[in-house]
Fold:
Amino acid sequence: MKRLTPERKLEWSWILYDVGNSAFTLLISAIMPIYFNSYLAANAGIDKTIAGSYWGFATAITTLCVAVLSPIFGTMSDFRGYKRPIFMLFAILGVIGCAALGIPMPWLVFLVVFILTKIFYSGSLVFYDAMLVDVTRSERTDIVSSKGYAFGYIGSCIPFIASILLVNFSPLDTPVAMALATIVNAVWWIGFTIPIMKNYRQIHFVPRTQHAVRDNFRRLFSVFTKKSDVPNKKGIILFLVAFFLYIDGVYTVIDMATTFGTALKFDETQLVLALLLTQVIAFPAAIIMGKLAKKVRIDVLILISIIVYTGIAVFAVFMYDEWQFWLLACVVGLFQGGVQALSRSYFAKIIPADQSGCLFGILDIFGKGASFLGTMLSSIIMNTTGSANLAAIPIACLLAAGIVVFLFAAKVNHPFLMKKAQEEEREEALPAAPPAEQPQ
Structure:
């Protein structure tokens, strides 16, 4: 068996965290909403549609909290030696929260624990995404980012299947089965977190100062001012606005899929199995997207994905049968990983590497802001009209607007990326410099 080089070993350490945390993603998107709607809320006498709106509100609150906290901690993580310990803190607290969700508790307390856990989980992903510039070279960011999502999708199927067997097919009572399922997912998550905790080293950083906290906020709030020294500022801003608009559809579909299906009275086992199919399809699809990025402009691939997602949202307005949910699950699987992975690697290319924590934190504001808006609008419409179908209309509108803005962003960023690639080629042609001490 061929031994991995240190560079590939570091890349795989980073990829494996996606395998670990994706188990929690699937748990809270496919099983937790059903458990909340059908058990906790049902025992409290709450209608399924109303319970679905409560779940949407909790998800919206989570994204708002993360949007506020991410840029603050992300900017701080750019200081030398900060990124890994802050990442570890959020990841470990997320794992503990995942296990705690299996403890029997009232529905309102459950939602509070869910919100806190998802805040830690989402926060860890901000630092994880920002690590991409440190774990691989610029020309490999597309394929490495895509492999992260791809192996995350397929790897998460293992604890997910175990959870399904425990919750749906074991003789255990529902609370006991859920407790075991959350423990399985928590152990899986922490197990695949250890490699990145052990092997990651921060290469790009901002020097520490005596007034780190003050300078942290100053640097955060000055990123987009006239005095800012961030290159390609216009292209970054346009992409952030486009990302805010189109990623809404991606995140809302992920967060609300089973909630929509449950509100439409679809069979709960069918919903879970359809989402499992999405994971399986997303594995090869994400890798193919990453490889296509070597031959096709990455902005073209992202644009195609946004257009398809717009079609998904429109189709959801007219979805009434279970076979339609299965069809949507297949189409989502083809493009879900690609649009997320390529958006991450595209952003990593258009920003300065030494400010990745700050700018990925700002990216999370736009991403979580979109998710907050999407889930909130969907929940309000579902709660007031009692229709899950109508809740897809605002998602379609935001995606359509995202297409327009992304076209402008791609037009500005393409010349910058071409110039950056030429500079990197010239640098690689120069004699190698003596190795420097590796920062922690």
Confidence is low (pLDDT under 50) at residues 435-440. The CA atoms of residues 37 and 51 lie 6 Å apart.
